[in-house]
Predict the 3D structure of the following.
Amino acid sequence: MAVAAVHSGGIADHIHPEPQGFVRRYVFSLDHKIIGIQYLITGFVFFILSGLLAEAIRTQLLNPSGGFVAPGTYNEVYSVHGSAMVWLVVIPLLTGGFGNLVFPVQIGARDVAFPWLNMLSFWIFPVAGLMLFSSFLMGAPTAGWMEYPPVSLQGAAGTSMWAAAIFLVGVSSTMTGINFVVTILKMRAPGMTFTRMPLFVWGQFATAPLLMIATTALAAALAALFIERQFGVPFFDPTKGGSPVMWQHMFWFYSHPAVYIMILPAFGIISEVLPTFARKPIFGYKLIAFSSMAIALAGFMVWAHHMFTSGLAPFLQLPFMIITYLIGVPTGIKIFSWTATLWGGKIHYTTAMLFAIGFVGLFTLGGITGIFLAAIPFDLHVHGTYFIVAHLHYVLIGGSLMGIFAGMYYWFPKMSGRLLNETLGKIHFWLFFIGFNGTFLPMHWLGVLGMPREVATYDPQFTFWNRFESFSSYLMTLAILIFFVNVLWSIRYGKRAGANPWGARTLEWQVPSPPHYYNFKHIPTVYGLPYDFSQPLPYTGLEEELTDSPPPVAAGAN
Amino acid sequence: MAERTAQPARLGRGFWAYTAILTVAAVAAIVFWYLFPLERYLPAAIVTARQVDTLFRFMAATGSALYVFIVGYLVYFAIVFRAKASDAPDAIGVQIHDNRKLEFWWTVIPALFVVLLSIVSVRIWYEIELEPANGLVVEAIGHQFYFSFRYPQINGEVTDEMHLPLNVPVTLNLTSADVIHGFWVPAMRLKNDTVPGLVTTIRFTPRLAGRYPIICTQFCGVEHSDMDKQVLVIEDKDSFDRWYKGWQQKNARAGNALPGAGGAAISLQGGDAAAGKVLFSQKCTACHKLAPFSQTLVGPGLEGVLHDSNHPNLVNGQAANPADVASILENGYTGSMGAMPNANSNGLSQQDIANLVAFLNTLK
């Protein structure tokens, strides 16, 4: 009878008891919070590996004649660095990691819609990551993360391994996308209307359809590349009737939306951190939410701006240029709104807040150079140069990675129950900020003056700035080392956080740190936006969350 | 509650004075970009390079001004509105959610700026597109790991340097013999990929004599980094003619670069020219025109391939004969003119080849 009673309550009250045993709890877990932490740990391990590859790149470029590694090895190093940072670090950390960890609690759900699918999509990810890194054993891919054929058809056997690995990551992403869309559409707590969702949820809601739809184009391209390399069916080889430009269309039809997969969740993180520490409602909630959706939609219509030099008909290029310019408008709205959120605040300088403010400053620079690159005449000059390298790192490090760090300092107490050390955090921020700008700012003028990307050796006239960049990049590495020391130290010895160390108002902060299995004793009811600091919390049904009352699990329910 | 609520909205101490400083800084940034001597660092070798610089100055100036304001206010708000030691620990900021007017203007002004930027960049794009289409035809062919060049209107010599006469419009056709390369001359502010099986075209007019590096910008294999050693030489017409003559003499001694007949001989008996003509329209016209040699589509024009002396000679110095053409059809071709699939991938039988050769032989 008890079982029937529990089950008859519908999804919201459908509670199974917490699984016992290490393997069920922490390895093959169905709990979205554990899966989120698994994603974060795995993603940061791959981050360390591909960060070391980045340092190998910068060490090679200390001298114009290279000399740290052979040119062939260098090509493998930067190709795996790029692929791993995109597919094994930034995307999984922001979607599988922070997405899983935070948004189901923020919408008042007990878990994601499909926990088994969630577990499966996580476990594909480390396997695919190991496959990608194992390609070093058989000759890793060398043609960058874009692997344009025909040169990628000539690559060593590792290129096929690369294609298989990225295909699997794509499968994992697609499943995560489906899971998140369904969860956000169907599992919000009573009263959690779309216009009451926290902006991090909006970020995930804009990202998930991109994961779901765009990744299929990449999967098709990768399958074709794999088949052509292994079985000789000519999709891309022009001497056998294939089209090398077709790869570029398929690749960028995915990889431009992927740029937004890598930034929209970070926008969401920033939109949570800024109001919390400015003690103010986010400025222009509706426009920020709407602009995320606009960016996601327009992201499907601009892929050919990566291909202005590929021989497209000239008049076909114009709409891609202009639509890309237009994306600047919703992006600008966000930047202005974040700046306005600071106005009139009572700003608390936690490390998370420093990273959030740093994000706005650095991402804006990457956004402005993005407009430069959309202008066809200027793109014909700087396409394929260090100007692109500078732009993409301002967006992906100054943007996505700063967002990831802000998220780590902000939500670490929620996942571990302990605060990260703020002193170490501030040293981390300032070293990282200085090292980052020193590494990537000079790349802008190196590119304009004539340094192409993806080279193991370069013209000696660029030696000074390359050395400057390399030494700055070592500063960044030191900063990241401090971050990891901080994480490992704080897990054991950090200050106890309590449920809500930041005085934040979204739902995840109204439950204990870490939250119970199944998140809520009772599903709360939501009455408004979470950002009104002068009002009482807009939730009811949370009274028992921080008390010792037993969780409502029927004994023997299974 | 009363002491928790923040003071009524104030723009902040010294807001307008600070805004004035930001305005000065933004104007200074604009002046800086319009005065910056770009050409001292990177000469403008062709006419449209200066147009690209104009666009760059416009974007750099407006972008810098915008950036000064955004970061300026970001830093200013971050300092002025920091929580002070004298504030109550639970003090909150001004509880303002949005401002219709502000949001309207920061949507509309950027949108208008997008219109302006689109007009400016389409105009400059159009000027580049307007470069004359009937200029001196030059072909650049990407190889692993160098570029070769041909001058089909002069004599079709294959050279490893690119020389161009001053002030003569140029039509540069780009293709590749193997993988995708990027043909970039930074001093031209212009590049295009060389794609195998595809001819892309850029048009420009050299305006400044000098030697400018040619750099490959698409990763093309293990020696990609070394593909920056060749130069574009822009010089006056006389020097250009002298240089070209020198190449011709050198080439006459070394022989030209088309492969001769090789492999098993193909029986050309019983070739049916009429059947060959049909086949040509099915299999060949995607890449070859029935027009003089210089009219390249992907491969060269094939009118008079076996009878017209404008077609380049073979490696052995002899004019092409039907067996040579059959050999290319059978084995395909990879070299200075690009890449052509072999008979197997084109789906040509021995009889098809005989028919095609018979047809090509009828073209005078």
